[in-house]
Design a protein that fits this description.
Largest sheet: none
Number of strands: 0
Helix content: over 70%
Number of helices: 10
Strand content: under 5%
Length: 216
């Protein structure tokens, strides 16, 4: 009995160490994800506060020598005059909503609905993160040029971006899919089983049980 207890204690310690290592790796991954998402916004903000001389100076990268709001004022008045601010805001809201819903569906599918080749498909999506953006832009441009979607000109309209977002083809979609997948994996299976016992299908379980958990 003492030998069995010692073996169980060792195994529990190994499991705890593996879980701690997994938590550390997930923490680093989330930090890297946040850095990748926030970094472009920080860069845009810094460039907006630079003068024309700072932008043309290769020695000025992060901290502007001539801090000014001139560029922000001119862009602001130009956006108001051409109604571009409203159009950009509406476009961003619609795209963000589509992105969240689609990535949540994909994340739930990869975390809870297991099918043949699901893991391979998920890691192929993750692999697309290392593909250069220029390659994706060129391939999508050629595809939309030679294969119009239901007769819609996708190259010269916002529908091209909406359709790409709808199919999870955004540049940051793999990151969001991974985040949603990890979140849904942390939800107890008992909630799904209870919903199934109440007669809820897959779509009802996702819409009425899983999504509301995100806002609790």
């Amino acid at each position: 009995m003492k030998t069995n207890n010692a073996v169980l204690i060792k195994e529990n310690r190994k499991i705890k160490k593996l879980l701690e290592i997994g938590k550390i790796l997930r923490t680093f991954l989330l930090i890297g994800t946040v850095f990748v998402i926030i970094m472009p916004f920080v860069r845009i903000l810094v460039d907006a506060l630079k003068s024309s001389a700072d932008l043309s100076n290769p020695l000025v990268y992060w901290i502007p020598e001539d801090l000014t709001l001139r560029r922000i004022r001119s862009i602001y008045y130009q956006l108001l005059r051409e109604n571009a601010f409203y159009n950009s805001f509406l476009f961003s809201i619609v795209t963000a909503l589509i992105q969240v819903i689609v990535c949540a569906i994909y994340g739930y599918t990869f975390s809870k609905l297991k099918f043949k080749g699901s893991n391979l498909l998920f890691w192929l999506i993750m692999f697309s993160l290392v593909v250069p953006r220029e390659t994706l832009k060129v391939s999508s441009t050629l595809f939309f040029n030679f294969y119009p979607f239901l007769g819609i000109d996708l190259l010269h309209s916002l529908y091209g971006i909406y359709i790409k977002t709808l199919f999870g083809m955004g540049f940051y979609s793999p990151i969001f899919i991974y985040v949603f997948r990890q979140y849904f994996k942390g939800i107890p299976v008992e909630l799904e089983e209870q919903a199934q016992l109440d007669g809820a299908g897959v779509i009802q379980t996702f819409w009425r049980v899983m999504l509301p958990k995100m806002f609790e």
